[in-house]
Every structure is written in structure tokens, then in C-alpha cells.
Amino acid sequence: MTADNLWVVVPAAGVGSRMGAGIPKQYLTVAGETVLSRTLKRLLSLSDVHRIVVAISAEDRWWPNESIGKHPQIQTVSGGAERADSVLAGLKALAANAGPDDWVMVHDAARPCVQPHQIEDMRKSLQSDLVGGLMAIPVADTLKRSDSELRVSETIDRRALWAAQTPQVFRYQILRDSLERALAEGIAITDEASAVEWAGFKPRLFPGSNRNIKITVPEDIELAAMILDAQPG
């Protein structure tokens, strides 16, 4: 990746219903700052980010209070009902500037603990890749499949299983085309890699970290604060 072709999309239009906080989880405070602000600062600290597009809800009344939103490298677009819609909106906002083989990094708004040096390592590993890849961690726990009565019907072999994280980094045209086609076909898209996989490509896995948590439930706020406090800087 060179200094002029790294673009970032941050989908931030979700409401975080599992948090039950009455406010989207990206605007909750962790260690004195909003989750979204901390996430964006991590991304801005990367050596060659050209632009960050943040996809927010049309009804978002919290974003105007985010001082980081005035940063010259950040722009906003209206997100959609689903994550894939928001990411696609961000990609379309980059259409006038991003080339087909440029890199686009997508990162969850609710992952403020990602370490910039891990992102840099992943980008270096993908530098000559034709498709892209994602951070992920090998599944450590024993996995059970349940039946309709919540009884175990099967123990699943976890040896080749990974839990997907973000960032996920792909060539611009591959990601945009994959998302557009999958959404047009009504395919359920859970992350960017799933759209790219559905389109026939094989993203690379890059070992991430258990500390790169996604804030989802209330106890994650306390956990994220402890992780951030333990990180250098």
C-alpha cells in the first residue's frame, strides 16, 4: 500500500440494541472518550491514511458533538439499514478518487482497542495480494451445535475455525462489486469478507488479538477501558 491509495470506511449507523443504553454504543464513553472517537484516532494514527469515510444514521444526533468529525481527513455519508449498506455507501463516496486496485480498509466503529502496529503488520503482509484479507483469531473454545430444545446435537471441530475481526482490507473494485452483487441477490452479508467469499474470492487470514474486542454488551465497556489502560500511549 502506498501513501496515496489507502482509504478507510467506518460503518457507524447502528443503534447497538444489545447494549440497552438508549444511545448508540459508538457514542458511549470509555476511559473518558467516546468509543467512536477512540476508534477514529487509532485509524488516523496510521502512517498513510488518505481519507476516512464514516457512515452514520440519518437520524444521528450525536455525531455533531464529536470534535474529531472536523478533522480534514474525515468525511461522513448517510449509512443504511444494514452494515453492508453503510459500507457500500462509504465505497460509493470514494468512487471519484479511489482506483479499482486501491486498498479500502473497513473497521468497526466499536473496536477502539485495535493496535495500529497490528494493522501495519497486516497491511505489509497483504501488500502484493490481489484480493485482500482480514484480522481474525483462531477459535479457542470447544464449540457445540444445539438442537431446538437447547440440547447438544454436535461438537464441532474447531481446528480450522477462526473468529473474524476488523480491520478487513480489500481492493476497492473487488469489494464494491462483491457487495453490490450480493445485496442485489439478497445474500445475507455479515462482514465484508463474506461478500468477497460469496463472489468467489478467498480472503487471507491475518492473526489478530483477543484484545481487539468489539463492544457489544455493557460489560465490554469496562473490559475495553482496562485494555486501553494497559496499552502503551
Sketch the topology as an H/E string, one letter per element. Answer: EEEHEEHEHEEEEHHEH
What's the arrangement of strands in the largest beta sheet? Answer: 5-4-1-6-10-7-11
CATH class: Alpha Beta
User: What is the SS-derived class?
Assistant: alpha/beta
Mean pLDDT: 93
Please give the radius of gyration in angstroms. Answer: 18 Å
Counting copies of identical and different chains, the oligomeric state is single chain
Distance between the termini: 25 Å
**Total count of helical runs of at least 4 residues:** 6
Helix content: 25-40%
Counting structural domains, the number is 1
Major β-sheet profile = 7 strands, mixed
Shape, per Cα inertia axes: globular
Describe this structure in words.
- The protein is of the alpha/beta class and 233 residues long.
- It has one domain (6-230): Spore Coat Polysaccharide Biosynthesis Protein SpsA, Chain A, CATH 3.90.550.10.
- Helix content is 27%, strand content 24%.
- The chain contains six helices and eleven strands.
- The protein has a seven-stranded mixed beta sheet with strand order 5-4-1-6-10-7-11, sandwiched between helices. A two-stranded antiparallel ribbon has the order 2-3. Strands 8-9 form a two-stranded antiparallel sheet.
- Strand 2 and strand 3 form a beta hairpin.
- Helix 2 (83-93) packs across helix 4 (172-184) and helix 4 crosses helix 5.
- The radius of gyration is 18 Å and the shape is globular.
- 38% of the residues are buried.
